[in-house]
Amino acid sequence: MNAVKREILPATWEAKYSFSPAVLTQDGKVVWLAGQVGFVDDNHQPLAGDFDAQVRQTFRNIQRVLDKAGGALKDIVSMTVYIVAAGFALPEIMVEVTAYAVVDN
Length: 105
Prior knowledge:
This protein is an alpha+beta fold. The chain has one domain (28-104): CATH 3.30.1330.40. The chain contains one helix and five strands, in the order βββαββ. The strands form two sheets. Strands 3-5-4 form a three-stranded antiparallel β-sheet.
């Protein structure tokens, strides 16, 4: 398996804010993750009202999806986080994360 080649474009004005304008990748597959939530833990116990626990569970769920795709959290190149938004599928959901990852072919 070849490693995915990643190139981080150098920052100009963005450096002041600690981010780069883009990440370029080659020789990898893009994984477009659907919105992930974590309103129940791995034992199916509710996490309603516990923001910290929901965030941690959400990222465990993301890791599981990436595992199935042959990737890991380190392969994420972009994510969008929705926090305590109106209109989540269930009222107990406090956070949702969508992400894009590039993993080795």
